[in-house]
Amino acid sequence: MLDVTRLRVLVAVARRGSLTAAARDLHYSQPSVSHHLSRLEAETGTKLLQRVGRGIRLTSAGRLLAERAAEIIERLDATSEELAAHVGLRSGRVRLAAFPSALGTFVPEAARRLSQEHPGLRLQLTETEPPEALRLLRAGRVDVAVIFRYDDTEPEDGDIRMIHLLDDPSYLIGPGSELSGDLADHRDADWIAGCDRCRSHLLDMCARAGFDPSISFTSDDIVAVQALVAAGLGLTVLPGLALQAHRHPAVGIAPIPGSTRHVYAAVYGEPPDQPSTAALLEALRITR
Question: Which end of the chain is more exposed for a tag (fewer CB within 10 A), N or C?
Answer without folding.
Answer: N
